[in-house]
Amino acid sequence: MADFYTTAKSTKNNSILHRRDNLIAYIIETPSRILHHERSTLYKGPNREPIGFIEFHGLHDNIVEINGRSFLPHRAHESNHLSDSKEFMASDGRTYKWKHHSHGVWELLTQDGSHTLVARYDRNNISVYPQAILVQDEVILTLIYMRQCKEKEDDAAMITATTSIGPIAGILPS
After folding, report:
1. Of 26, 66, 70, 82, which has the fewest beta carbons less than 10 angstroms from its beta carbon?
2. Is 150 in contact with 100 (CB distance < 8 Å)?
3. Per-residue pLDDT for 15 more than 60?
4. % residues pLDDT > 90 (the chain)
5. What number is the average pLDDT over the span 4-19?
6. Is residue 164 part of a domain?
7. How far apart are CA 3 and CA 156, in angstroms?
8. Which of 113, 104, 110, 114 is nearest to 146 (CA)?
9. Of 126, 140, 123, which is closest to residue 44 (Cα–Cα)?
10. Which residue intervals define the domain DUF6593 in the entry (predicted)?
11. Other CB atoms within 10 Å distance of the CB of residue 48
12. Cα–Cα–Cα angle for 122, 118, 97, nearest 5°?
């Protein structure tokens, strides 16, 4: 099993993932938004070898690319429209689904009927189980994508809630 942890200064956009022995395993960097899209780059190891990226676009599909292979996690088939769950096909030919639980917990399950847990994220700790070690880079990149999507959805919901309540609340004359 591969276990990683982030430091207290890490954010969803800029993080360093350390292995148990404290060596750097991955670095995630997201510079400021440029030309209407946001790009996060995933680097592997302390030598900062770029292995993947995520681009969020306002007018067309987002892009997720790892080791030259593009794919985009999409809504899981059995999920309802309110679900945060998304699935993707990894380079090993298997389909996996990220499932969001309360308190920032994410679990990655196989979509082969067995629904085997192959990775788990709980706040600042990520565990990748032996069944997913061969696609570990994809696991890390899709987790980053899922967390960023969730935050964008939460931000949009907050803006909608704020504008629907608006400045009228509490100031109407009695």
Report:
1. 82
2. yes
3. yes
4. 50
5. 81
6. no
7. 32
8. 104
9. 140
10. 14-148
11. 13
12. 85
Q: Which residue has the higher pLDDT, 69 or 10?
A: 69
Residue-number span of the structural domain to which 60 is assigned: 2-156
pLDDT tens digits, one per residue of 76-91: 666 555 667 899 999 9
Length of the chain: 174
Q: What is the CA radius of gyration of the chain?
A: 18
Q: What is each CA distance from 70 to 50, 61, 73, 95, 118, in whole angstroms?
A: 15, 12, 10, 15, 22
Q: How many domains does the chain have?
A: 1
CA 59 vs CA 36, 43, 94: distances in Å: 9, 27, 30
For residue 167, is it within any domain? no
d(C-alpha 132, C-alpha 96), whole Å: 10
Q: The domain spanning residue 78 has which CATH number?
A: 2.40.160
Alpha carbons within 13 angstroms on the beta-carbon side of residue 39 total 9
Q: Alpha carbon 105 to chain centroid distance?
A: 11
Of 70, 96, 74, nearest to 86 by C-alpha is 74
